[in-house]
Design brief:
With 351 residues, this protein is of the alpha/beta class. It has two domains: 174 residues, 3-Layer(aba) Sandwich (D-Maltodextrin-Binding Protein, domain 2), CATH 3.40.190; 164 residues, D-Maltodextrin-Binding Protein, domain 2 (3-Layer(aba) Sandwich), CATH 3.40.190.10. Helices cover 42% and strands 14% of the residues. Strands 1, 2, 3, 4, 5, 6, 7, 8 and 9 form a nine-stranded mixed beta sheet that branches. It is globular.
């Protein structure tokens, strides 16, 4: 029987036409009547909110299974194959990487729909009793990089060591793990920007990508940066216990905890709804979901779930009330059309 299932999945994945794929998907997915999504801890609360709305609007449908695995971990699960044993949706706090797209293709996941659902900000926060830090991408990079500007191990112990204008308190940052899209955003939006303050690093990016990544995105492992898993609540607890510490997580989580946390401005710009929405805030980033087109007809309610997402991401809508920043009118309009027509991602502009 297992051999038959494997052959069915293989035939499904390699089928030449969408209709054939859908027929195979139906056969393989007959044992699952629930939508399954994996991925970003940042997107998780929004996906669960949409799931609740979906169930309320569709009596008799089972609630979607939403798993918080981190964006990178979710991509591995999502790209592992097509069929009922594999997730239908990947929630992502960054765009899919070219290497992940290629992994999907290698495993027969060849029709992927990319939908931007909104915007988030990579927030830096401290306790209400904190020192009132004001940071820049450059100071964050100098504090957290394993080998600042490629010149050897980071020896900075206090914030004053990296910027004389900052207080002489120990560097202590609680942030996301390497499997998280939030960690990828920290690297791309903050660490790389800080690293590129040195012209030599910009030149290195063109001449040696591996050395550039090692110098600009590798985080120190001497205890100054603490991997806090996918549970952002744990970071809030740690900030409460250590008022001098800094936490890194999605803006929506900061907004939910403003009773106990203060925002740490970046380049003098506060992480506010308007600043994130406009892109003025340096840590602004788009949020996505990725969907297997071949699963649309096979998994009951999957298309209706996507429609519920599209109905929930407007300013003042369900997701905004849960803390997500609505994308611009143009982005939302394009995303709504994507939900309607389900165009397949070609991967040509992925990095």
């Amino acid at each position: 029987m297992k051999q038959i299932v494997r052959l069915a999945v293989s035939a499904f994945a390699l089928s030449a036409t969408l209709s054939a794929c859908q027929d195979k998907a139906g056969g393989e997915s007959a044992g699952r009547d629930q939508i399954r999504a994996v991925g970003s801890s940042t997107v998780y609360p929004f996906a669960t909110a949409v799931a609740e709305q979906f169930v309320n609007a569709n009596p008799g449908m089972k609630s979607p299974i939403i798993e918080s695995t981190g964006t990178g971990g979710g991509m591995k699960l999502f790209c592992a194959g097509v069929g009922s044993q594999f997730p239908d949706i990947e929630n992502a706090s960054r765009r899919m990487k070219k290497s992940e797209f290629e992994m999907c293709e290698k495993n027969g996941v060849k029709e992927i729909v990319e939908i931007q659902i909104g915007v988030d900000g990579l927030a830096f926060a401290e306790s209400k009793k904190g020192p009132g830090l004001k940071l820049t991408p450059e100071t964050v990079y100098k504090a957290l990089a394993a080998n600042p500007f490629g010149k050897g191990p980071n020896t900075a112990q206090t914030w004053k060591d990296v910027d004389p204008a900052l207080p002489a308190i120990a560097i202590s940052v609680f942030g996301p793990p390497s499997t998280s899209g939030t960690r990828d955003s920290l690297a791309e939006l903050i660490l790389e920007k800080g690293c590129q303050s040195d012209p030599a690093m910009k030149a290195l990016k063109d001449s040696n990508e591996d050395q550039y990544k090692a110098a600009c995105t590798k985080v120190r492992e001497d205890g100054k940066y603490v991997d806090s898993g996918e549970n952002d609540n744990l970071i809030v607890q740690k900030l409460g216990a250590n008022p001098n510490a800094v936490g890194v997580f999605g803006y929506s989580f900061l907004e939910e905890n403003l009773n106990s946390l203060n925002d740490i401005p970046l380049n003098g710009v506060d992480a506010t709804y308007d600043n994130v929405a406009s892109g003025k805030y340096p840590g602004a980033r788009p949020l996505y979901i990725y969907v297997k087109k071949a699963h649309i007809q096979a998994i009951p309610g999957l298309k209706a779930y996507l429609d519920t997402f599209a109905a929930s991401w407007n300013p003042g809508g369900l997701l905004a009330k849960r803390g997500m920043v609505a994308a611009t009118d143009a982005v939302r309009s394009a995303a709504a059309e994507t939900v309607k027509s389900l165009p397949v991602l070609n991967g040509a502009d992925l990095k």
